Amino acid sequence: MSVLCKVMASVLVLTLSLAALGWGDGDQGNGRSEKEVSGQSTVYLGQDRDTWRPLMHTTVKLSDIKGIKSSFQMRTFDPEGVIFYGDTKSGEDWFVLSLKGGAPLMQIRKLNVVVSAAGGPKLNDGKWHTLEVSNQGKFVILEVDGSDGLVVGMHSDVTEDDLSGDLRLALGGILISKEKLLVPLGPQMDACVRKGNWLNLSIPWKSEVPDLWPCYQNIQPGSYFPGNGFAIYNTSVFHVEEGHSVKIELWGDFDQMDGTILSIKAPGQKPALVLVANNKTQELTVTDNEKLVVMKDSLKRLEIMLKADSPQDEDKEKESAFVMSGGTLSVQLGHSSAWKDGRLAIGGLLGENTGESKGNAGSQFLTGCLEKIQVQGRDLDLDLAVKHKSVSPHSCPA
Fold first, then answer.
1. Region 221-397: CATH code
2. Which residues are the signal sequence here (predicted)?
3. Using an 8 Å Cβ cutoff, are 127 and 218 in contact?
4. Any idea what the Cα angle at residue 147 is, between residues 141 and 151, rounded to 5°?
5. Rounded distance between C-alpha atoms, residue 284 and residue 277, angstroms
6. What's the distance, Cα to Cα, between the start and end of the chain in Å?
7. Cα-Cα-Cα-Cα dihedral of 110, 23, 89, 27, to 10°?
């Protein structure tokens, strides 16, 4: 598999006609209302929906296809996700274009054989790139900004039936089982697509999403919280060794934020730590169970240290320290018990039982951009959160 994933401009034996690319079983009988969208529209692929379900799709008869080339522009900071999918024969033959590690990845199933190829330039630099997928004889070619980015060659001695029936295309998801993919990947992608020309088709696409989210004119790296959603993690996923402290770091312009930045809570206990920004007063409130500290200094970085408990601390009063230095606020908690079997929320206030925010959501959720989030020195991937809604995990409006 590792060799196939690194194939670039090489021949893999079997044939493929790009005209046979389409999409799976669609929306028959699901009861969802659909709206028509132009294939040339600017759309945000990371919109909240079922994880693997495409954002929009279209269906056409194979006999109506006028070309075997599709092109579009894409912009993202996200290193992984599904861009473009298609199949025929109700998902028997299929094609998936995605990013993996920031680079293009094509996966193709044809005549009971699945191949994959990855390589070319990394595209998660936040710039608009033009991608073109075409079929040239026995080769499927992905061009990036006018240059060959990835080539897959296929040939077979098996006689293929004449193609007939429907061709279906999709953006931002797949309609086959994810287990059929040769290379596993996370599907949702914080990306924008525009100026699509899909097999020279002019028919409209369909979307089950009532209102398509806009794409910001300019973006910067970071995680954007629009004020109505947050990300929750079970703290057990971070695998902190017994006796070790926990370090959480946040970067951003905290003067521009409003709402709950972070909260830590164990079941049945009060929140061990809550950080709240107030954009009107330019204050940052830090609450450690019972202690409340209000900071008015401009901050660019927050450092939170949960100290590991030790047997010597059992009978001692546990204290917390709040230290401000050079635009960095260091919060040191005198215990880490709340971290065990607890939850960490980025962008919201944890409630009881459900783990969701309580009270007025508008005053509890964060509005603003966190440029970088780290736990134990490693970047935090919001795509792996237990729950997040309406959050752009890899980009902020600039």
1. 2.60.120.200
2. 1-24
3. no
4. 25
5. 5
6. 39
7. 150
On whether the CB atoms of residues 98 and 82 are closer than 8 A, the answer is yes
Cα(173)–Cα(55) distance, integer angstroms:
7
204 contacts: CB under 8 Å, gap ≥ 6: 36, 37, 38, 39, 58
pLDDT per residue as tens digits for the range 158-189: 656 666 778 889 999 998 899 999 999 989 89
Residue with tokens 């710039």: 127
Q: Where in the chain is the domain with CATH 2.60.120.200?
A: 2-215, 221-397
What is the per-residue pLDDT across 3-62, written as a single tens digit (0 to 9) for each?
223 222 222 222 222 333 322 333 333 445 788 888 888 999 988 788 899 999 888 888
Give the CATH architecture of domain 2-215: Sandwich (2.60)
The DSSP result for 153-193, as a single string, is E---SSPPPPP-SEEEEEES--SS-GGG-SS-------EEE
Region of 9 please: left (phi>0), alpha (psi -120 to 50) or beta. left
Single pTM value for the model = 0.81
In 3D space, the residue among 395, 353, 15, 45 whose CA is nearest the CA of residue 220 turns out to be 395
- How far apart are the C-alpha atoms of 335 and 245, rounded to whole Å? 9
How many residues are there in the chain? 398
